[in-house]
Predict the 3D structure of the following.
Amino acid sequence: MFVSFFPRPKLFFISAVLWTALAVAIWYSFAGEIIGSSGDEPIGVSRFWTLRSLWFDLYFVLCVAVFTGFWMWLAPHPWTPWSIGGSALILFATYFQVQVNVVINDWFGPFYNLVQTALTKARPVTLGEFYGHISTFASIATVSIVVAVLTRFFVSHYIFRWRTAMNDFYVANWPRLRGVEGASQRVQEDTMRFATTMESLAVELISAVMTLLAFLPVLVRLSSSVTELPLVGAIPYPLVIAAVLWSVLGTGLLALIGIKLPGIEFFNQRVEAAYRKELVLGEDDATRADPPTLSGLFTNIRRNYFRLYLNFLYFNIGRFIYLQTDAVFAYILLAPTIVSGTITLGAMNQIIRAFGQVRSSFQYLVTSWSTIVDLLSIYNRLRGFEATLHGEPMLSIESVADPAGL
């Protein structure tokens, strides 16, 4: 899964984490101050090409170039341009989207303050002022859309290259793999699904971490406007603490409820593969795919799907209750502050958006659990190939006859 696309995967990923940590430490220690801030950052697209922003872009390119050059020297790999260069480009695009969200959050403050000024008639507000703010948002959104579209186009090619690498690797070892249960499906379908799902989850995880790093200081700053929380009263950094505790509670609860889902999804792939294989064999052999055999195989599919539906019922009850409560949780926290009238409409919207960004970063498992379930089932199936190639015993789940035995 990884050795086909990345050079020496275990060492590579460890070095990537260490190099990233070192690069971040250097940036925040002194490199980021080489070109210091010129005061308040502009609210608009001009923030993306300030000297400090351009210096960060150059710093990122230099760090990636050094890391790529090192690995091209240490362990030459035919897919290095895509596995390292492509991953770095996706990482930068993810960072850029987070910065867009930061700029939009900053835009909400003065815009809603202007709306409040107009509605309360505190001073005359002209259409030119109002449309000026709308124009600023439109320019930010345009940049965001262009980057998002181009990124998705690139990611599609990145995923297919990863699938190609896995496909070539497994096909080259097909004589040793053809005896594995559902081998054809694992090569033809699971490779694409693994690359797609892995990329999606990795980008979401990186985005969550970057969003947390970008918005946590914003939320700390905005917490100064919140004097107390319901029930607990005044505490230090109230919004940050509330976001962390609420997210950890939701993540732990849903992970506990959905703990059996990966195994059941794995069995879904097994029974589907057995049914599909019998149908394919029946195309060329009249003695195969007879009605009793197909009926028995389809009964296995029905039994497993009904078990999956039941487990998702429990999971979705907890998930939807949590997410619906989550939609108003920030307003509940701000209730004493709103009622006392100590913040403006613009500040309230900035707090709610920043709180939502920080909270969603901590809720990575909550929002991604269904996808993680799918990825784990695919991973377990492809690990069967890895075990066969390395002469290792198959995963224990491969020998379980029914998900009830998990």
Notes: The longest helix spans residues 291-340.
